[in-house]
């Protein structure tokens, strides 16, 4: 796919309710992250508009019988939807790239295929999991019946707009629920086209609605709506806590929260080839310019190989060149907004002022005011109290700490707030499994860092990194409520 002209991309706008785009006054400006030029505007859904979307979803869910259709019938519709996403991959990749931080090469080879394959995975879950017969008295029968909630609310993040939305759309719809999705106000466009394709595939009009707007307005109204049976959110720990509180106060509805992270990458001196390790560490904290909740932003390396590994990471980081997302050669993404870039730099400068020193980076690339691009940054001289170690920066910033033995490494890896993911790099399988047991994180990667297309592997965090799981059978089963039944003969 060649470079493309961002000015030629027509972004859909408005909400998606009742199977069609519905206009709204564009009160939120949307900028292209690559050059900060306007792409258009979107509405900010009022309480009344959210009420309309949720009520439409609920009535369409009932009238269409989506929740009571045979699981295979739902699966066939979702499989057609996935095929349509693939058929429109070029259009979706361009739309995703121009309005987000995802370079076109990655949108084409990862984001869009991930989205369609994620939907396929959950479509195939539809008739694979059900209730259980339970051991009861000889003259009775006990069993558990799974039932869809009705209407599920989903709030998706800006960093991987399409693929993160598929985490929520796939299991909710496959389980027989209706869905009302709110994308980020910074990346609102690509999901509208995907919603159109859902209707074309046969998802009943109204069963999948999209509302646009800010989290504190449209998102909050969606969470507290009385007809919402469950909430799924991916985003910051702070916002997740607010959603959890809001959901508890308005119907005590369950939530799945995939939240922030401060993931360690522990490298032992027997981990193998330094060059390969350096590439793995680099990708762990610079992929999507570090704008990923699982980013491996804390390097904890055994002292004997520390200097060689750090030098190799710095050399590879120096070779990264930023570019706009519509350029085929771009491998290093822009920061989503000026506000986010300012937060990244403030955390770095504050850490330096508190005693850390930058081994590389610590400043913006000079792009003549066309977008915000932050240089890959390594910070040494940090401890547990350093801001760069404590806080999720959500940018291409790696802290460096060294250790002498296994216990010290695992002590450094433990974080008081976060427990989303971790990487362990060693050729000693016993050491790797001991580390896996002690690390408090929802995902532990050994001799790799990052997700794959193995949708059966769930993702989700411990501590302040979240509640519940996305992906895997766990995500599918979380979209049901379970009814216990006992029959006396």
Quantity of strands, as a count: 22
Number of domains: 2
Q: Which shape, going by the Cα principal axes?
A: globular
Give the class-level CATH name of the largest domain.
Alpha Beta
Helix content: 25-40%
What is the CATH superfamily of the largest domain? Aldehyde Dehydrogenase, Chain A, domain 1
CATH domain topology of the largest domain: Aldehyde Dehydrogenase, Chain A, domain 1
CATH architecture of the largest domain: 3-Layer(aba) Sandwich
Distance between the termini: 66 Å
Strands across the major sheet, in which order? 14-15-16-13-12-18-19
Fraction of residues in β-strands: 15-25%
List the uncertain runs: none
From the alpha carbons, calculate the radius of gyration and give it in angstroms: 23 Å
In round numbers, the mean pLDDT is: 96
Total helix count?
15
Oligomer: single chain
Main sheet properties:
7 strands, mixed
Structural class: alpha/beta
Notes on the structure:
There is one protein chain. The longest helix has 22 residues, at 104-125. This protein has helices spanning 47-64, 71-87, 89-99, 104-125, 161-174, 190-201, 215-224, 237-249, 274-286, 303-318, 338-353, 387-390, 406-413, 429-438, 472-477; strands at 15-17, 20-22, 28-31, 38-42, 133-134, 140-148, 151-155, 178-182, 208-210, 228-234, 255-258, 264-267, 298-302, 357-360, 377-380, 397-403, 418-419, 421-425, 443-446, 462-463, 466-467, 480-488. It has 2 domains: 6-259 and 466-488, Aldehyde Dehydrogenase, Chain A, domain 1 (3-Layer(aba) Sandwich), CATH 3.40.605.10; 264-454, Aldehyde Dehydrogenase, Chain A, domain 2 (3-Layer(aba) Sandwich). The model has no long low-confidence stretch (mean pLDDT 96). The strands form 6 sheets. The chain has a 7-stranded mixed β-sheet with strand order 14-15-16-13-12-18-19, with helices on both faces. The protein is an alpha/beta fold and 489 residues long. The radius of gyration is 23 Å and the shape is globular.
